[in-house]
Design goal:
about 300 residues, alpha/beta, Indigoidine synthase fold, eleven-stranded mixed β-sheet, 11 strands, about 50% helix, about 15% strand, globular, binds pseudouridine-5'-monophosphate, binds manganese (II) ion
């Protein structure tokens, strides 16, 4: 039934059938998360990094209504060049792209769904969506969190940006039973910085230990994802004051301009990037590469259990 909608790239399908490690990658980060051409360069570099670490990359998107698990270089270039012209697709949007034969850049939530359809357990990205600051009033809570509650994929990320309320994001995940694992850290990383005031649920120091916990969770039928939080390498971390000032300004501008709904996160990401010049983009790229390496190591370890 799924074949009717799903195209798994042959290399990815072969690897999955042979129980070899595969790492899923999202496409909203390409079309809506970084400017062209560095978005395309990064997406290709991330794939290369995963290969060098001994796993097969599967970048996920919707192309002309087909659910694609594994993209060609030309498709990645297209998604990067088209940028925000491509619809940002979360769970609710998938059927409309399919029925309308449209293109879609998949968020963390939608990428998890397509990864699960294909049988991929590990997904590497930059940052996850979460509970926005002021959500007590706006109800702005990313569908990524609900997906983590339901879908059996581990998401390797550098924590969440402090455009979000990290404390409320932790509370939401706790209610939904989603574990937050810190890789070699006790503190929840805040994307550009290695630490926040929030702690993780479990600190694990090796890919093997993380893979073992994933295996136990899913073999017991405990539904849902896991957040694997991997701090940005020290040499690329940004000064807290610089990044916080940019975030505060971006949030003020979003309020003034009445930006809400699915436009909110891309607006904030783009403004923070502009306000910090190229620095935050460099940091962003490095942390994604770092997550790709850890994702590949976890996928390796998981395939060897
Ligand atoms: N955070 C980032 N970079 C990103 C995103 C979030 O630092 O590119 C993207 C991811 O695709 C994530 C989505 O799933 O934004 C969340 O959007 P929303 O808050 O509208 O759910
Ligand atoms: Mn939202």
């Amino acid at each position: 039934m799924l074949e009717k909608y799903l195209d798994i790239q042959p290399e990815v399908a072969t690897a999955l059938a042979a129980h070899q490690p595969v790492v899923a990658l999202e496409s909203t980060i390409i079309s809506h998360g970084m400017p062209y051409p560095r978005n395309v360069e990064t997406a290709l570099m991330v794939e290369k990094t995963i290969r060098e670490a001994g796993a097969v990359p599967a970048t996920i998107a919707i192309i002309e209504g087909r659910l694609k698990v594994g993209l060609s270089q030309a498709q990645i270039e297209y998604l990067g060049k088209a940028g925000t012209e491509v619809t940002k697709v979360s769970r609710r949007d998938i059927p409309f792209m399919v029925a309308g034969q449209q293109d879609g850049a998949t968020t963390v939530a939608a990428t998890m769904i397509l990864a699960q359809m294909a049988g991929i357990k590990v997904f590497a990205t930059g940052g996850i969506g979460g509970v926005h600051r002021g959500a007590q009033e706006t109800f702005d809570i990313s569908a990524d969190l609900q997906e983590l509650a339901n879908t059996n994929v581990a998401v390797v990320c550098a924590g969440a940006k402090s455009i979000l309320d990290l404390g409320l994001t932790r509370e939401y995940l706790e209610t939904q039973g989603v574990p937050v694992v810190g890789y070699q850290t006790d503190s929840l990383p805040a994307f550009y910085t290695r630490e926040s005031e929030q702690s993780v649920d479990y600190r694990l120091d090796s890919a093997e230990a993380i893979a073992a916990a994933l295996k136990a969770k899913w073999e017991m039928g405990l539904q849902g994802g896991v957040v694997v939080a991997n701090p940005i390498p020290q040499q690329y971390a940004m000064p807290v004051e610089t990044i916080n000032a940019a975030i505060e300004q971006a949030l003020d501008e979003a309020n003034e301009q009445g930006i809400v709904g699915k436009a909110s996160t891309p607006f904030l990401l783009a403004r923070v990037c502009e306000l910090t010049g190229g620095n935050s983009l460099d940091a962003n790229i490095q942390l994604v590469l770092n997550n790709a390496r850890l994702g590949a190591a976890i996928a390796q370890a998981y395939s060897q259990i």
